[in-house]
Design goal:
Layout lengths: L10 H14 L12 H8 L3 H14 L2 E3 L5 E3 L3 H25 L4 H12 L1
Antiparallel strand pairs: 1-2
């Protein structure tokens, strides 16, 4: 079944985000091979060049490494993975704070809401 994409961001960025999330959530483990460009293109029902663009971004971030003809693998460097996780989490928190401030909700109220959701 083809992946679902939105029209608000380029498809290659959405693919990059999805693969990153799969890595950070542990779906793909450090050192594990990830599906090929061709396989992901088939799964997502997109042009292989789109997937290639996503892989180029992932490699530039260091979260994915190419091993020539063997394919692409999740980095073994846990520090890179943790830094990526932290960077994404910080962005989510900043976006949350901006949105919650726009609603005139206090920090204490926001914390109470977060604690309630975690229960």
């Amino acid at each position: 079944m083809a992946w679902k994409f939105t029209s608000d961001r380029p498809v290659y960025i959405q693919i990059t985000d999805r693969i990153t999330k799969s890595i950070l959530s542990g779906e793909y483990k450090p050192g594990e091979q990830i599906p090929s460009v061709r396989q992901l293109a088939l799964d997502a029902a997109v042009n292989p060049n789109t997937v290639q663009h996503a892989f180029a971004d992932l490699e530039s971030e260091g979260i994915v490494v190419s091993r020539g003809t063997l394919g692409r693998f999740v980095t073994d460097d846990n520090e890179i993975i943790e830094n990526s996780r932290k960077k994404i989490a910080e962005k989510i928190v900043k976006d949350f704070v901006v949105n919650i401030n726009d609603l005139s909700i206090t920090k204490a109220q926001a914390i109470d809401m977060i604690e309630e959701v975690f229960k």
